Fold Psg1 protein.
Amino acid sequence: MKLSLLLASSLLAASASAYKEVHHPPEVKETTSEEPKPWLRTIYSTKVEIVTPTVIAGVTFSAKPQETPDPLEKWVSLDKLGQPKTIRPEIKNGRTVRARPDYSTYFKTAAVRTYSYEDLKAHNMDPNDKYEEEYFIPEDDTYTSLNPVMRCTPDAYFHKGLAKDISSEPFCTPRENVQWKVGHTFFATWYTRFFEEENSGKVADMVRVHMSYVKESLSEKGISKRDLHATFFSSEWVKNVDGIYAITPSQDWLQGEYDRKIVISVQPDYVSDAQFNPLENGVVMHIIQGSKVAKTTKEDWVLIEAGLQKEKWWYIALTMPTIAIIVFVILYFFLRANKGMRDFSDVTKATLGKKHRVIGKFANMRKFKGMKNHKYTELPSYNKNKGKQS
């Protein structure tokens, strides 16, 4: 027994001395850089250029395209604030869902070419006839193809104003009365072909983005240029063909306030500063410090959409009961002053008389012409002894 115990203890000691802790290899951290590298490309057949990608709000602009185009390549859309959201196309039932948008002819130029009989030699064409064909010239997408964000077209316009009956042209984002938070990046997008000079028909090459303070008012209708406090932000001149501009609201723009009402607008290069009106095609919105602690209810959003905010709603709420009280007081004194003229007995008697009036005589009525009138005492039910009905 003692021998077996000694043998067991010796085996345990040997196994304990033979134990070695397992060492896991250290984790290898990826050293890939988040900043995309510049790349080379040849444009217009012979011109070589270096393209430097730029990352704005998580979106990579001017990224190197894939060697083999992928129909399911992700693209970037924008919400009503102008914040990016990635869309990943899928194939369902043989069809592509959420595919990259098709811009139709919005960015093409319409043109007409004329053919003579000698050009076509059509069998159903007379020698003196001419045929006109309308066609579209594609735009130069050398640089627009490097923009991964959905472009603004009239299909993406929204309606603004109290009655929602005013087109937002040329803007697609941001929507009216949205709130931009300080420190976040948003994209303003517009339809580039909207800025076409009336006389020459030429689309503007360069534009500037402006933001101006707007006086708080109960109604957006009738607002004029004098209601602008100041233009506090003006961008540099940028290419209109891009149709997009990134904006990060600054703390200084609030000027100590929590919420500032502004209008965002785009000025084309063929309009001077003196002639430019930010409200003509601008979108009214708000810049705020951050998220409010109190939850915004549906009623609050209705007031925001109607332009009723801050103390102005309280003014209206307090004014309505006051008006009601004044009306009741006036009505009370009016009734007191005319209490002697409230006798309607003659009207009541006349009305009751009309209800009990018999039109014509019974004898003249067709239904009673054959009847012979009897005195009450001659009726069968009359009792001479008691003088009442039996």
Remarks:
- The two ends are 135 Å apart (CA to CA).
- The chain has five helices and 21 strands.
- The first helix runs from residue 2 to 18.
- The chain has a mean pLDDT of 80.
